[in-house]
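Retro notes, item 3 of 5
We never archived the inputs for the zinc ion complex last cycle. Fixing that now. Sequence and ligand:
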Amino acid sequence: MDVYGGQVNKLIAELSGLPGIGGKTAQRLAFYIINMPEDRAKNLADAIVDAKTNIKYCKTCYTITDREECPICASEKRNHKLIMVVESPRDLAAYERTARYDGVYHVLHGVINPALGIGVGDIKLKELIVRLEKQDVEELIIATNSSVEGEATAMYISKLLKPSGIKTTRIASGVPVGGDLECIDEVTLLRALEGRITI
Ligand code: ZN
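Structure as it came back at the time:
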């Protein structure tokens, strides 16, 4: 029996489509939102629409930003000859939280995953190659996750860059296998970064 009515069910259905949100949590959130003061609910809805409308990729590193170029790429305090390749903006944020990495990033937005039909052309790899042709780079640190796909993508990039002579390193495998970089504490991330090896 439809106990809530269409509007509430629609909200619950939308919320339960978010990652990590099961049916019960979706219901709890839906009722929380319904009971919010109207201006707060509107602020939430506006924030979602604004983020979706205004957020774009940084023209250099492809992280998400509301500017043409993200604050990291635009900073003169960062070492632009050191590029760390990460899978997602969340991984970038994890390394930024350590406050010890002074290079810049390149965000792939995924890894090569044939099982899911994600090929070389589906991630920002071409963009990395174009960037490396224009930018003077001393070292490229490949910090994709240590999942099978993350490792395979790291190997693919290192082979691709061999002829360029750019030093390519891989973060140490102190990062748990299959571990999501985002969930790993800062000490472990720093250890993985400092223990990186040339590949
Ligand atoms: Zn950037």
